[in-house]
Amino acid sequence: MRLNNPPVNTLSLEFLTELVISLEKLENDKSFRGVILTSDRPGVFSSGLDLTEMCGRSPAHYAEYWKAVQELWLRFYQCSLVLVAAINGACPAGGCLMALTSDHRVLADNPKYSIGLNETLLGIVAPFWFKDTLVNTIGHRAAERALQLGLLFPPAQALQVGIVDQVVPEEQVQSVALSAIAQWMAIPDHARQLTKAMMRKATASRLITHREDDVQNFVSFISRDSIQKSLQLYLERLKQKKG
Amino acid sequence: MRLNNPPVNTLSLEFLTELVISLEKLENDKSFRGVILTSDRPGVFSSGLDLTEMCGRSPAHYAEYWKAVQELWLRFYQCSLVLVAAINGACPAGGCLMALTSDHRVLADNPKYSIGLNETLLGIVAPFWFKDTLVNTIGHRAAERALQLGLLFPPAQALQVGIVDQVVPEEQVQSVALSAIAQWMAIPDHARQLTKAMMRKATASRLITHREDDVQNFVSFISRDSIQKSLQLYLERLKQKKG
Amino acid sequence: MRLNNPPVNTLSLEFLTELVISLEKLENDKSFRGVILTSDRPGVFSSGLDLTEMCGRSPAHYAEYWKAVQELWLRFYQCSLVLVAAINGACPAGGCLMALTSDHRVLADNPKYSIGLNETLLGIVAPFWFKDTLVNTIGHRAAERALQLGLLFPPAQALQVGIVDQVVPEEQVQSVALSAIAQWMAIPDHARQLTKAMMRKATASRLITHREDDVQNFVSFISRDSIQKSLQLYLERLKQKKG
Under CATH, which number does the domain B2-241 receive? Predict the structure, then answer.
């Protein structure tokens, strides 16, 4: 699955929906047992959630958007296929979340390709299920530090903290990801799937149980004047940077 | 306590029952404060659960066997004595589970002596309490990977991932285990026991609460035609290997 | 905040109350966004709980004292300010607990300055919320081992197990702590505070929910003859050492 939403694979409402439908199709097609998730956009795996979907819109739109983000995570985190992330570009925030849903993460060794949940730097807060996914991956203390400081880990640090499983030269990312997925697909599917479900069920259930509350929390948080203002400022600075 | 159920310390129904009774006796004998768990069979700590108890038998037998496996874990994991595993041989699946119930694990540095929960390789699934025990020992992410891939860690990797506490030359396993148990027994018993119970209570309670469901799950899973067929195939291959 | 309760910053009932009030004042004073916690007593960060408050007193006194210990932890662990511990001395038991409530821990590289929850060595047991705080910091397995053995980690080991974040030459502890707090204060306050609360809420709630039970447990445990005797012995030995 090659992510391709120019310019930087931002997770717009439309793109989120496409991703969920694509994964669903692959899961239902019995000829597929695994998926490599990688980017077709040079230098960026995914820039994460789409701030334009969270800024200057209606509460109903915020709610619709957030449900789509939840749906992406629920589908990918609980995907019965083997999911390997071949991270061939920068991987902040929502991009990192997608990578964290994989079974195995290979990161290209390029100092520009950092990975992390850097929400606090924008003045926003990762929801509890982003947090749970990170805690499951790097442990409680490292997650506490990373989430509060909004840390983006460059490759060597990413490997050390365990947010990725391998760091390899950029030109080898795809071939190493292929070797990794072969290792995972060598396991009897049924046993692997049941084990994966067992490992992730409690975490997924926490969101499923509180899904509506989580939407309400997001809508009321993102609708605040102070948050809207800081997002607008951030978006304007981004535009100036590009312009 | 020297494991001795020829040829490879397979955890048959009878051997499980013996182990539980032996440990109970040691707990009730006030002259004992700690136990070293090791093998009298060359090259094997324990080969794990007995597949012949899970194959071609009645549902009632499967249920009886599974209750005995639960009982072993509950007794050993909550044992008030200091438990040190001197792992002087291969330690897969149920053998690994037993080792994981210890307070301290010393592994002989022999590349043939790997340790891990490799159930998925046989097409079966470790139950949630095997999983909980492994997560408590090596963390969520390492456990997710190890359980899905059915990893058997050779000594250096076992030490690195934390599934054992020490790797030492084979001829020193017993003496190092003795030093370790001396360190643990130097702690006031009552305070150590209360602390151990506090650390392990939540995990043990999860099984105690769902014990009957867990038996039913096992019986219905193991009774499936597909599982029975793959276990039969595996057992036949084992026989041919030996023959 | 400079700890100064001669000779060794023992957490007496009075000192606990002072600490809580001081922190409360700083939280309410909007000109403060962060606090460095360090010691004014040479060689000791804090010697921990005050055994004289737990020995030869009335059950009502034990209950009052324990409530104050709970209050300290609840306030410090859930503090909305950035809290950095500049650990410039020995840091056992209750001193370690205080340090563990911080967002970042810097330890002076002096072999005499060890840190850990060594309660079992005195024949007593750390309560579940000490345990939860340690598990959140160093993980379940390391906490299980450290708590049962009452381990006091010297600097290099403390860094390796993750009970502190940095070990630096003694004369640099304060300046490194200042750099660390600057890094934490660079994050938008509101987002950082919400993230911190999200990370720590479940752990704090466990005590809040069981606060009264926890007091009763402590009072009945500490009132036992055997515990009182071993505390008296320990205190007498301490006096002789000093005398």
Answer: 3.90.226.10
